[in-house]
């Protein structure tokens, strides 16, 4: 019999782990995306690296990070680093696409009005690209919720603990006790961030 308190605590662990990982990926991805709009020569290299990380199986990436000093080891820290790396690509790609997708005529009008590059970024480009950027964050969040279940195998905690335990003991109840809350969190994140995406959009 699985105690409700255990499911509750593991669900909170899972949510915190996802929020921290997506927060790191969001900050890094948006900053890199903005930088790449100004440094076209680096786009292929950075996007290629982020894309390469996506091709590495999640459990293998966790394993690769364990021996690395400072960020490695068994535990939640390594899991968060791995999850942040996985969440980076959709945020980075959508930030880049959103800003580059701004109508050049709008930029030219802003320049003609005497706006500086910083003002154009914050007052023109980012507001117009906000829906695309938020879509990247939504995709990153939903996929990270699912991937985070694997973190249990390196001591990261979360709902994957129940799934791993259930698989080891061939206990469907424990598997469902971990999988159902994770699916519910993913659905709530998809719906909630989709709503924010529509509200924030300037169009």
Can you walk through the features of this model?
The protein is 79% helix and 0% strand. By secondary structure, it is an all-alpha fold. Helix 1 crosses helix 4 (76-100), helix 1 (4-38) runs antiparallel to helix 6 (117-147) and helix 3 packs across helix 4. The radius of gyration is 19 Å and the shape is elongated. The model has no long low-confidence stretch (mean pLDDT 91).
Which features would summarize this protein structure in a list?
elongated, mainly alpha, 8 helices
Give the low-pLDDT segments.
none
What's the rounded overall pLDDT mean?
A: 91
Q: Globular, elongated, flat, extended or rod-shaped: what is the shape?
A: elongated
- Count every helix, treating DSSP H or I runs of 4 or more residues as helices: 8
The total strand number stands at 0
How much helix, percentage-wise, in residues? over 70%
Gyration radius, rounded: 19 Å
> What is the straight-line distance between the termini?
51 Å
**What percent of residues are in strands?**
under 5%
Give the topology string: H per helix, E per strand.
HHHHHHHH
Structural class: mainly alpha
- Main pleated-sheet profile: none
Task: Please render the helix and strand layout as text.
Blueprint: H1 4-38, H2 43-55, H3 58-65, H4 76-100, H5 104-112, H6 117-147, H7 160-169, H8 172-200
Helix pairs in contact: 1-4, 1-6, 1-8, 2-4, 3-4, 4-6, 5-6, 6-8, 7-8
């Amino acid at each position: 019999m699985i105690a409700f308190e255990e499911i509750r605590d593991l669900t909170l662990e899972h949510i915190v782990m996802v929020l921290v990982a997506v927060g790191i990926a969001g900050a890094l991805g948006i900053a890199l995306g903005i930088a790449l709009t100004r440094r076209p020569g680096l786009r292929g290299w950075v996007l290629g690296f982020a894309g390469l990380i996506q091709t590495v199986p999640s459990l293998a990436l966790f394993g690769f990070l364990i021996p690395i000093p400072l960020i490695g080891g068994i535990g939640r820290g390594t899991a968060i680093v791995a999850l942040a790396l996985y969440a980076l690509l959709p945020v980075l790609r959508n930030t880049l696409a959103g800003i580059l997708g701004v109508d050049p005529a709008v930029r030219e009008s802003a320049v003609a009005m005497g706006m500086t590059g910083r003002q154009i970024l914050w007052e023109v480009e980012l507001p117009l690209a906000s829906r695309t950027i938020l879509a990247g964050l939504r995709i990153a969040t939903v996929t990270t919720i699912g991937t985070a279940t694997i973190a249990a195998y390196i001591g990261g905690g979360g709902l994957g603990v129940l799934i791993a335990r259930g698989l080891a003991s061939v206990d469907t109840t424990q598997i469902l006790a971990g999988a159902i809350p994770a699916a519910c969190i993913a659905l709530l994140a998809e719906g909630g961030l989709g709503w924010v995406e529509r509200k924030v959009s300037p169009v």
